[in-house]
Specification:
disordered C terminus, single chain, about 75% helix, mainly alpha, 14 helices
Length: about 260
C-alpha cells in the first residue's frame, strides 16, 4: 500500500510538472508573437477570453495562498503575502512545481500538521484576517460568476474557444487557469481522501465550472478555521468538518498519499 501511495505521488508530481512546463511554453510563444499589453487588449475583446482570465484569478485563493504558506509558513505573514502576489504575477506553473516538490520531497505532501487542537478550533472565535480572506474569496467567486454568465450570453462556447485558440495570450491564460484546476483536483483528492463520492463531485465541478468551484471549496473549508494556514494547510476535510467531527483532517500517516 505504501508503495502504491509513493507511485501515485510521483505520477501526480510528474503530471503537474509537465503541465507547468506546457504553460511556460505557451507563455513564451505568446510573448514572441505579441507584447503583453496588446495581449490583454486581445483578451478584453472577447467575453470567453476575458472569462478565462477571470478564471485564472479565481484560482488565487486556493493555489497562490497554499503555495505561499507551504513555502513561507504562517510565522512570516508579510513574506507569505509577497510570495502569494508573485504567484499571481508569475502564474500557476509556480504553484504546480511547488506542489510537485512537496509530493516528491516531503513526507507531508500537500498538507501539513499543525499544533492547533480540534478543541481550540471549536472554541476560538474566527479571527478577522480569516474572515477578510473568506470575504475576498467570496468577492472573487461573484466576479467569476458574473464573467462566466456574461460569456455564456454573449456567444456560444465553441466560438469563444475558437477565439481563444487563435490568440496566443488568450490561449496561455486559458491553459494557465486550467493549471489551477489541476492543482485543486490534486488538493481535493488529498484532503478528502477516502470520501470518493465527494471527490468525484468536486472533480466534476472543477472540470465543468473551473476555479470558481475551488473558491467555493475554500469557503466551505474556511468555516471555523482559526487561521488562513489552518484553512489551506492542516484543517479537517469537509466530511470531518460537517459530518464526522473526527481529527482525520490532520492527515494521519496512514491517510497520506
Amino acid at each position: 500500500m505504501a508503495s502504491m501511495r509513493a507511485i501515485a505521488r510521483l505520477a501526480t508530481a510528474i503530471g503537474l510538472t509537465a503541465f507547468a512546463g506546457y504553460i511556460v511554453y505557451l507563455v513564451v510563444l505568446a510573448a514572441e508573437a505579441q507584447n503583453i499589453s496588446d495581449g490583454f487588449d486581445t483578451i478584453k475583446r472577447n467575453a470567453w477570453a476575458l472569462s478565462a482570465l477571470v478564471d485564472y484569478v479565481a484560482s488565487v485563493p486556493l493555489c497562490a495562498t497554499w503555495a505561499a504558506l507551504r513555502i513561507c509558513g504562517s510565522a512570516r505573514p508579510w513574506l507569505a503575502v509577497a510570495f502569494g502576489l508573485s504567484c499571481l504575477l508569475l502564474g500557476n506553473p509556480v504553484v504546480l512545481v511547488i506542489a510537485a516538490g512537496a509530493l516528491v520531497f516531503t513526507s507531508a505532501g500537500l498538507l501539513v500538521r499543525d499544533s492547533t487542537s480540534l478543541i481550540t478550533r471549536r472554541v476560538q472565535a474566527q479571527p478577522l484576517h480569516v474572515m477578510a480572506f473568506l470575504l475576498a474569496t467570496g468577492v472573487v467567486l461573484v466576479g467569476f460568476t458574473c464573467a462566466t454568465f456574461a460569456a455564456i450570453v454573449s456567444e456560444p462556447f465553441s466560438d469563444g474557444i475558437d477565439y481563444v485558440k487563435a490568440h496566443p495570450w488568450a490561449l496561455a491564460s486559458f491553459v494557465d487557469s486550467f493549471g489551477g484546476v489541476l492543482f485543486a483536483m490534486a488538493y481535493v483528492l488529498v484532503r478528502e481522501w477516502g470520501s470518493w463520492a465527494l471527490i468525484a463531485a468536486f472533480w466534476a465541478g472543477l472540470l465543468l465550472g473551473g476555479n470558481g468551484v475551488s473558491c467555493l471549496y475554500v469557503l466551505l473549508i474556511g468555516w471555523n478555521a482559526v487561521s488562513v494556514a489552518d484553512l489551506v494547510l492542516s484543517g479537517p476535510s469537509l466530511t470531518d468538518k460537517y459530518w464526522a467531527g473526527s481529527s482525520r483532517g490532520f492527515v494521519r500517516q496512514e491517510d497520506e498519499i
